[in-house]
Amino acid sequence: MAPDTPSPGTPSPGTPPGAAYPAPPAAEPETAVSLRDVVKTYGPVKVLDIPRLDLARGQIVAVVGENGAGKSTLMGVLSGTVTPTAGTVEIAGRPMQPGRPDHSRDMGVAMVAQEFPLVGQLSVAENLLLGRRPQRAGDGALGRLVVDRAGMRAEARALLAEVGVTGVDVDRPVGRFPVPVRQMIEIAKAWGHRPVVLILDEPTSSLGPVEAERVLALARRHAAGGGAVLFIGHRLDEVRAIADRVVVLRSGALVADLTPAEATEERMIREMVGSELARADLAPPSTVAREAVLAVRELTADGLGPVDLDVRAGEIVGVAGLMGSGRSRLLHTVMGAQPRTGGRVAFAGADFRPRHPGDAVAAGIGLVPEDRKAQALLPAHSVRWNVTLATLRRISRRGVLRPRADKAHAARIVRDLGVRLHSQEQPIGALSGGNQQKAVFGRWLAARPRLLLLDEPTRGVDVGAKAEIYGLIDAAAQDGLAVLVASSELEELLWICHRIVVMARGRIVADLPREKFTKETIMTAAAGSAPSAGGKARA
Amino acid sequence: MKTTTAPAPTGAGTAPEPRTPLARRLLETPEVGVIAACVLVFTALALDKSTFAGAVNLQGMGFDLAQYGLIAIGESLVILTGGIDLSVGALLGTSVILMSWFNVRAGLPPVLAILVTLLIAGAVGLVHGLAVTRLKMAPFVVTLVTYTVAQGVTLAITSGTSITGIGGLFSDIGQMYVAQIPLPLILFAVVAVAAWFFLERTYAGRQVYAVGGNPEAARLAGIRGDRRVVSMYVTSSLLSAFAGIMVLGRMGVGSASGVGVGWELSAIAAAVIGGVSLVGGQGRIVGIVAGTVLLELINNGLTTLQINSNYTNIVLGCVLGLAITADRLRARSVARRN
User: Fold this and answer.
1) Does residue B231 have a pLDDT over 90?
2) What does pTM read for this prediction?
3) DSSP three-state, residue A431
């Protein structure tokens, strides 16, 4: 268990910060966590390289960085789920055994993850006390063996009250609660371990403004009580509001260590993206044709619409919106992968009613789906099979594939897209995320489509490959392709798009030309009537 | 960067493939183990018992191989799509009975009896395929139903009495030799080559692998996987009935004693030993054929060595266990290298 003594009693949600948390014994060192020469590599790729990082007690340290900058790896190292390749980690002056989640938890590291490892079928109380017994449980043999239900319930309620949640029936299965409540339960669970270091991984992304404020208050309370808080945030305004110190990661390295005064949003973004994305040539190509390749009118489907949308040849149109706003649904419905319930779609001037993605491919549409592993790749099969998947019929003669033509075709795709590999016969699962994604792009560009639908085109892709993928999208638009790109990374859309449409609850609520691009406008539109919750766009 | 994939100038399309050492290429070929095992077992048995490699015994093995091999190929085609067909053996038994019944009791000429039976088997396969794709029923359950019903149909038709007096065409197909080679073996070879061509050389075959490997990815890539899946179930059932012709011709009577029941397990074993992954999407005809050959060599070898036939299944089971363990280890070592 954590070295701190458990907080006595049950403070109400309104308790002033610090009041409920006992001050640490004076003998404890000021440094809660110290990392020395911590390195993590996957094969040839270095995903984390931190020569030195100390987290002091009483401080809220925010870690910011793009997706893939190494934030999750850093947290994984601290919480024991990732074994570092080299280096040492000390918690409160004692060395931590790497790669041992149980050990790291016992030393006082508690983490609130984005994806909650809650057991849906178990009750709230059982989840909150998973892996430990109630404090009041008997120490006798009986107390060790038998579950003390009353004690569990009481402690679960006390914990929830501490994090500011009331009115939750602790006997109900967790799976029946909505996501925001589950997130708060997850936070209470971490809190219940009385940690020295509390790691919050985007804790507010699934919360409304009121709950988000409670979580921030909890973090402040923990710091004021002598704990250390590591706060991973995407919403830079939130980071600025809470952090006593901002650490910026880029490509696994610690590139900036800022005081609150230094950490303006502009500065943080600059440090996060580095120099390469400050380039001016990230503006989209000026090749927009006049006629619409895709004209969608009053399109409806399950959870979508009615939607009106035009995409012109050579145009890159972004689709922004919160999670569940219908971004992917829109793409899938256009592709024919989800049945439509009404409306019309004109593609290349003709009425278009796909009943299967095969119809869309035949008409000249390609889809790079969101979840690469589950929706795009044949992970066990060769790169060659993967890149030729959408063009098999085209390269065959009367249904017969000729091995030489097949190989030459695949080699051309791989070379044009700059996919780095040993051999086109190696399984695509062995490539890095960026190269896998380029291969998926190659699969579609080879089909010479007129419309490319991209769903989270750079998810799980390192920064370098990201820039290459933006280059591919640019080049595709220059060649006259219409591109519809859905992304949860706003910066990405701001950089590459001619136009951004914002979706909320299945409808398009804003259509912004490039000169009107600002994060604020998009987030406000995405959040609909509640602009204060706009940060959920990052979900 | 230029991103068009329009036809590049001739000659520029083929990137130099790095040559990998032969040993490593062999290691990465999943079928190597089972082929080596075939050679090893054959050589050992031939050295030990001269009768084993004799023409008579080889011809006998040829007949067996054709029967088991045909349904193993059908079974494998279904497994490649990510499904399983438990009905191949029972359906073979029913086909035997149906053909003899149509021929003897209904008085149809043998050719017509065969055609009608194939039609029925094809319809059964179609039902399997549609139930799996349209109704999203589990292949295991769907074909388990057929497995049960088919055995019942066999019993119902015969009431336990075998049907005698079948036409000469059956024994012609089932017992004829062409240049000392059993005709069924030749027919099996033809089917195997056709299946190889389909899987390795046609785009439809590649799509079968894609559907088995990742159905959602295949769908979003515009592949109509349902058609491929249905056609594989139909082919599997057709091959069962086709194998039934050989069996009927060889036995000379429409046996009511449940011929074929349990053969589906040999077929699955042959496929797995030959490197076919039960989750779908992986496996090649070479391996499937080699797997069938290995099982037949062992089966026949045990008889030749005059080992009590009660022990046969123990040995076959152990071989299956060894094969899947070896394959797992091989796959893991390849994965580590990558």
Assistant:
1) yes
2) 0.73
3) coil
